[in-house]
Design a protein that fits this description.
seven-stranded mixed β-sheet; Nucleotidyltransferase, domain 5; globular; about 525 residues
Length: about 525
């Protein structure tokens, strides 16, 4: 019999430290440490396994870094719509980054992990990869996801994960239908963090944060959902054990140069942990990130299900859940404008393009771009969406095209914010990070479009720091896990320009309506691409 969500929270919290919402400031059980401390009891290495690189950073409990390593790996697109990696290459890079972070001689109390969510790889009877590593950006299972939405409309409310090809659930169905022999040979289905943790500890475990991004975990029981498993066609024994994010395992491998028995805290997904690392953990404080893609997330005390299916809901800690939406098109849109509109400017034309865009008034003089170059996730979760400029006139130049593109990215995040508020969630403060924050224009534009002050942290805090804070709490390096905002210094707050904010507020309903109006055209174009083998 399924537990209630309240009972599940108590079950998950057994033996855990106090909930985020109940904690005070972060306090060490040992003496307070300075940024130059080197005490083994005060340091932890956070390993952040991203989509294109792994960053490992040695942190103290005040958030100061004492060493780091960074190793990249390619994202491969062997077919249109596929986005895969070599799982062994990613594993090797993650271990190399960790060794680099430790090369300065820091004697750490343990490791804690963050990972990009929604990855999937199939293993054989000897735990060797039978498939490539499918990332969140792989949308080969678009047809399966669309069918799930039609045939199992209540499934998202059960699992918290949108029925979209980013998630492992429709990917598993794709393998079952398109690679049936390979599907039968797979002994175990895992994500990239599970593969690395198993390499280091010998155990197959997945944290509730990453598990709740698979589309296979029940929000009620915080365990694998029997209905979702049956739909996917997999057995519970083919998946890892679901554990709390503070679950602590022991290193069995000596390949990191750390002693066997060193603690490894399994951690969580990069999105939920970014909220912790940005200090966006108090009620009403949201975290926004714009890198290649983008996201807007809010922590809540109970699972928050959007009846309209526009938002995800992922577990993090007892009494702490993360709701929100991710968008596919962030900095990738600006990169496209450089390649398509200004190839003569070389490989990094962003600075010049943003200078041109800054000379154009808010609203791009009647030009709107739907920035769905890589289809779109929240709030539409639409795999056939396409990019479109609407309102082109003879006087529109390069600066207008660039400004409309990044305005479109911000407007899409505004739709996510509107969805959060429409679902009953209050957002009173936003903290933002990501590569976009290097642009003065883009910082101000985000505040103008969202119509709210935006705080920018002094350092690039995020998933790695979130993992470190989680790990310190699990290992007892702190008396309690605080509101992480106590460690995050906000260097700048941007306030909306009233005139620009009014312009963008007036345009947002039109921006939203244009998507609805163009869906039939998007579907026709998608079918044409498919017929031509794209």
């Amino acid at each position: 019999m399924a537990m209630t969500r309240e009972a599940a929270g108590r079950h998950l919290g057994a033996g855990a430290r106090p909930q985020l919402a109940q904690c005070g400031t972060l306090a060490l059980r040992t003496a307070a440490i300075s940024s130059g401390a080197d005490n083994v009891q005060d340091l932890i290495v956070a390993v952040d396994i991203g989509t294109t690189s792994t960053k490992a950073i040695v942190y103290d409990a005040q958030g100061a870094a004492h060493g780091s390593g960074d190793r990249g790996y390619p994202l491969l697109e062997p077919k249109p719509g596929w986005a895969v990696q070599d799982p062994l290459q990613v594993t090797a890079a993650a271990l190399e980054a960790t060794r680099a972070a430790l090369s300065g001689g820091a004697d750490v109390a343990g490791l804690a992990f963050s990972s990009a969510m929604h990855s999937l790889v199939g293993l054989d009877d000897h735990d060797r990869p039978l498939t490539e590593l499918l990332t969140w950006g792989d949308d080969r299972a678009a047809e399966q996801a669309e069918r799930l939405r039609a045939e199992h409309p209540k499934l998202q409310a059960s699992t918290g994960t949108p029925l979209h090809p980013m998630a492992p659930l429709p990917k598993l169905i794709w393998f079952r239908e398109n690679e049936p022999e390979l599907f039968r040979r797979v002994r175990r289905w895992v994500g990239i963090k599970e593969l690395i943790v198993h390499r280091l500890t010998g155990e197959w475990a997945i944290d509730v944060s990453c598990a709740s991004g698979t589309g296979l975990m029940s929000l009620d029981t915080l365990d694998w959902d029997p209905v979702a498993l049956a739909i996917a066609g997999v057995e519970r024994e083919q998946l890892s054990r679901v554990v709390p994010c503070e679950e602590t395992l022991s290193l069995e491998s000596g390949e990191l140069g750390l002693a066997r028995g060193t603690s490894l805290v399994i951690g969580g997904g990069d999105g939920p942990l970014a909220n912790l690392g940005l200090g966006a953990v108090r009620p009403g404080v949201a975290a926004c990130s714009i890198g290649t893609s983008g996201a807007l997330r809010l922590t809540v005390e109970r699972p928050g299900i959007d009846p309209a299916g526009r938002l995800f809901c992922f577990a993090l800690m007892p009494g702490t859940w993360v709701i929100g939406g991710a968008i596919n098109n962030g900095g990738a849109v600006l990169a496209w404008t450089g390649n398509a509109l200004a190839p003569e400017l070389g490989p990094h034309p962003e600075g010049e393009l943003l200078r041109l865009a800054a000379a154009v008034p808010a609203g791009s003089e009647g030009l709107i771009m739907l920035p769905y170059l890589l289809s779109e996730r929240a709030p539409h979760w639409d795999t056939v969406a396409r990019g479109a400029y609407v309102g082109l006139r003879h006087f529109h130049g390069r600066g207008h095209l660039v400004r409309a593109a990044i305005e479109g990215v911000c407007q899409q995040l505004a739709l996510v914010l509107a969805s959060m508020r429409d679902a009953g969630h209050k957002v009173r403060e936003i903290r933002a990070t990501g590569g976009f924050a290097r642009s003065d224009l883009w910082r101000q534009m985000l505040s103008d479009v969202l119509g709210t002050p935006i705080g920018f942290p002094a350092a690039a805090q995020g998933s790695a720091l979130g993992a470190a804070l989680l790990g310190m709490n699990a290992l007892g390096l702190a008396d309690s896990l605080s509101h992480a905002s106590d460690l995050v210094r906000i260097a700048e707050v941007r306030h909306p320009d009233p005139d620009n904010a009014a312009t963008y507020a007036a345009l947002l309903p039109l921006f939203a309506d244009l998507y609805d109006d163009l869906v039939p055209a998007f579907r026709t174009l998608s079918h044409l691409e498919r017929d031509r083998g794209r």
